[in-house]
Amino acid sequence: MNDERKPVGQQKPMEAAATRKKVNAKPAKLGRDVQARLGQQLRAMYDEVVSQGVPDRFSDLLNRIDGNNSKEGQ
Amino acid sequence: MPMDESVRKAVLSAIPSLRAFAISLCGNVDRADDLVQETLLRALANIDSFQPGTNMSAWLFTILRNHFRSEYRKRRREVEDGDGHYAETLKSQPEQYGQVEFKEFKDALNQLPQDQREALILVGASGFSYEEAANICGCAVGTIKSRVNRARTRLAELMHVNSAEDFGPDETVRAVLAGGGE
């Protein structure tokens, strides 16, 4: 009967841990906010590479292939 | 015959994203760049099989992924050093996220099964539609959707995130919490 009036902070540590664990164990359906945040991080990571542009080795490679092809064609 | 100018432009503009995808597959920048180079050589040697008007980027991604699957996947485990990955490409961390959280995210991403990670990246970062991602991976659209969902759920699990509040407020506070708790 008095359970309802149990002061805050008197929850047994074991119970608290069990509650936490249960929440973590069942991710259920991800909220939009979580998905949005994960998506932001994914893009931040990816865009860091994208923002490096085209390294010289690849533009040189295209030029070389282009040059070879041009010679063959003449 | 010189390379068609429109082909050249399309290939060049696909390279930055192709590298980002390659790094996510290889887990190592140098190997990723080798993979991109081999992909470009293969693609340009077979440029006749590219259908003008279709998506050059998706075509290159498909070649890169297939080449990775046949040549690189075994090698990855042999040389993987456990860290590095994307971290070594990042000269500056995005300011808006705590660095601890960002590292946790990358670690979690690296723990995903290959199929899930590539599906998540193609759809969530490269900007391909589910249909395009399915074509690139040679599987059904439903399979891609399910892989992406599982990847998101697993990421949240690995990061112990149940709501947006579970993302730390910032690095300093997280460090304090980590030092004082459990």
Helical residue percent band of chain B: 55-70%
Helix segment tally of chain B: 8
Task: State the largest interface.
Answer: A-B, 39 and 48 residues
Q: Radius of gyration of chain A in whole Å, from Cα? A: 29 Å
Question: Could you tell me the number of beta strands of chain A?
Answer: 0
Average pLDDT confidence of chain B is 82
Number of helices of chain A: 3
| Structure class of chain A | mainly alpha
- Basic shape of chain A: rod-shaped
- N-to-C span of chain B: 68 Å
Which stretches of chain A of 5+ consecutive residues score pLDDT under 50?
1-11, 15-27
How many structural domains does the protein architecture of chain B include?
A: 2
Number of β-strand runs of chain B: 0
Largest sheet entry of chain A: none
Q: Quickly give the CATH architecture of the largest domain in chain B.
A: Orthogonal Bundle
List the helices and strands of chain A in order.
HHH
Largest sheet of chain B: none
Describe the structure.
The complex is a heterodimer of chains A (74) and B (182). Chain A has 74 residues and is an all-alpha fold. Chain A is 68% helix and 0% strand. Chain A is built from three helices and no strands. The longest helix of chain A is centred in the middle third of the chain and has 19 residues, at 32-50. With 182 residues, chain B is mainly alpha-helical. In chain B, helix 1 (5-26) runs parallel beside helix 3. Chain B starts with a helix and ends with a helix. The interface between A and B is large, with 39 and 48 residues. Chain B: This is RNA polymerase sigma factor. Chain B: InterPro entries: RNA_pol_sigma-70-like, RNA_pol_sigma-70_dom, RNA_pol_sigma70_ECF_CS, RNA_pol_sigma70_r2, RNA_pol_sigma70_r4_t2, RNA_pol_sigma_r2, RNA_pol_sigma_r3/r4-like, WH-like_DNA-bd_sf.
